[in-house]
Every structure is written in structure tokens, then in C-alpha cells.
Amino acid sequence: MKRYVMNSESGSSLAGANNPNPAVSVRSWYVRLAALSLVFGNLAVTPSFAQDAADLARAAQNPVASMISVPFQNNINFDVGPYESTQNILNIQPVIPIDFSDKWNLITRTIVPLISQPAFAPGQSRSNGLGDIQVSAFLSPKQVGPSGLIWGAGVIAQLDTASSSRLGAGAWGLGPTFVALKMQGPWVLGGLINNVWSISEDSGRDSVNTMLMQPFVNYNFPDKPGRYLTFSPVITANWEAESGNRWTIPLGLGIGQIMKWGKQPVNMQASAYYNVEKPKFGADWQLRLQLQLMYPK
After folding, report:
1. Which of 173, 163, 233, 245 is nearest to 9 (CA)?
2. What is the distance between the alpha carbons of residues 62 and 248, in angstroms, rounded to a whole number?
3. Which three-class secondary structure state does DSSP give residue 155?
4. What is the mean pLDDT of residues 165-179?
5. What is the b/e burial string over 277-289, where b = at least 16 CB atoms within 10 angstroms of the residue's CB?
6. Domain 22-295 has CATH 2.40.160.40
7. pLDDT at 43 over 70
8. Distance between CA atoms of 42 and 156, rounded to whole angstroms?
9. Residue 40 — pLDDT band, cuts 50, 70, 90?
10. Strand spans (E) along the chain
11. Is 50 exceeded by the pLDDT of residue 22?
């Protein structure tokens, strides 16, 4: 099955037919990311908030933390489709922990994608709207084990909610999901994986069998509370596609900072990724910008 909607991500193209010099555009986006890094570098937390910022940074980097949060993650994908246009995906991702029992938490994570999809054929216009919503539920122990391993296991459901056939798979899906991580000094190391199989497809639509794998490596600056570097590529595999169009494998880096807007803790993050492996009409580059509202207990 061929799918052109990216998971984790309108305008004109960054490079290619509408840009005679792709290298200049790539450099320009590195300059913009460097500028964002300088902005983060000049942000500082107050001494009274320093310890809270450090703790919140670790909570934000833990997918099964017992904390309500609402991330708004905007993914700008460049050189998408046959016309090398720009795709934009705003993922609204509320995370709600539930006190399941004395020993277990149930962590629910919903992804609501708002997509701006460029044209893929002559005469076709840009499509804007809602994509397929995904809902994950993880059972996770409340107490960290003696090895320091934090983990959660559960199910992921894909809902056939796309407002246009071009914005979704046209299928309901279900599958397992698992996350594990460890916190060692300033480092947070871990990964998340899931696989979704379709259980019902719309007429004329292909079966779904897709895997998502997200390793993450975060370094928290000891002398800059709440500031961190992050490596968290979203690797996907479409098992229904031909081998040459199966994988999307990005490499890149980002920077983040915990701060307060009045009394509201927020996590701001900027990352850039280059796809070293991608389907034929997949994006070359991605700029990921995130604002996460955090509601600690």
C-alpha cells in the first residue's frame, strides 16, 4: 500500500523544480535552526524555578510520565510528492495519566493530525483537514524497578477519521505498542515502537500494516536547568509497500528548553531531520517545532 501522509509532520517547495539551488535552501534552513538555537541559548530560568525545570525536562522526556500534558508538534516536510512541495502536519497530542491501581498507571496518548497536503497530480489542489487519529494506552508500573528501567506496554488504535481520502489510510487499525527508557545522570535513553494492522478498510482502499519506531537520546545540561539536546527520529516502515518504498529513516538533532509563561510550565523544542531513506515521494527534510503545555501534580 502506498501512503503519502507522513506521521510526525503549505506552501511552496524548498528545493527542486521551484528552486534552482537546493543546497542554498538546505543551508538557509540550517541557519534558521541555528538562530532558534541561539534563542534557546539566551533563555534562562529563574533560580527558584531551576530544580522544577530540571525535573519537568525529565518528565517531558518520559512518554509514560504520570503528568498531564498537551504537546502541539508542528512538522514541516520539504520536497514532498512529484512536485517537491511542502507538507505541513500539526499534531495535537494530549497525554492523560489515569490512576489504574495501587501499582499501575494507565497512560493515554492521543495524536490528532491537522494536515496540509500538496498536490500529487496535475490539476489537483492542496488538501487541508483532519487526518487519521491515533490513540495509545500504556500500562506502566508506578515504581521504577531495581535496574532503573521505566516501561509501558499496551495497544494503539488508528481511527478512520480523515476528512479527505488524501489525508488518511481509509482504514480502522489496531496493534501493540511498547516503550522503555532509563535515566542515567544527565542522559535519558529509550525508545517507543508500535505496529498497526487494519481490521477494516473502506471500499477500494488497501490493507494497512505499518510500524513506527522512535528511539530517543536526550542530554540535559547540568548547568542549564531545563535545557537539553534531543535525538528522536520517527522511523516508519510500510510493510505493504515495495521494498524500495518501505522505509523512512531520518537523522538529525534538536534543542529544547523548559520555561514558564506566567505560572504555566511549557516545553519548547526545535529539531531538524534529513531522511537518509525514504519512499519515492517522501520528504527530503523535516523541521519539527513543538510547544508542550505541562500540568504537573
Report:
1. 233
2. 24
3. strand
4. 98
5. ebbeebbbbbbbb
6. yes
7. no
8. 39
9. low
10. 68-80, 85-92, 95-99, 104-117, 127-130, 134-141, 150-158, 171-184, 187-201, 209-220, 227-231, 235-238, 247-261, 264-277, 285-295
11. no
